[in-house]
Amino acid sequence: MTVSTTPTLEGQPIQQYLGIVTGEVIVGANLFRDLFANIRDIVGGRSGSYERILSDARKQAIEELQAECGALGGNAVVGVDLDYEVIGDTGSMLMVSASGTAVKV
């Protein structure tokens, strides 16, 4: 299934618009990962553990988006937007959401 941030797909005319589809993933922060990320912030460098969590959450949100599109009978999602939000009283949760328009091409 094609997933694109663009509103159209070059060479693939949209035959039918099926509606907005979404995928959301909420992940919790881990105390040890937070501790090592804080140390990494002090000494410099990238936080590989957080990057992996973000990557996994983004992939899961897109997979949910694709599943919702497929359930509507679509074969592509256009105009995809990815959002990242820190939520919870202490900012201990991260939400990754993907939204777009399911279409048949």
Automatic annotation (TrEMBL):
Which species expresses this protein natively? Answer: Pontixanthobacter luteolus
Q: Would you tell me the protein name for this molecule?
A: UPF0145 protein GRI43_12350
Return the NCBIfam families for the record.
PRK02877.1
**What is the phylogenetic placement of the source species in the record?**
Bacteria, Pseudomonadati, Pseudomonadota, Alphaproteobacteria, Sphingomonadales
* Pfam families in the record: YbjQ_1 (PF01906)
Q: Which family does it belong to?
A: Belongs to the UPF0145 family.
Q: Which InterPro entries match?
A: UPF0145_dom_sf, UPF0145_YbjQ-like
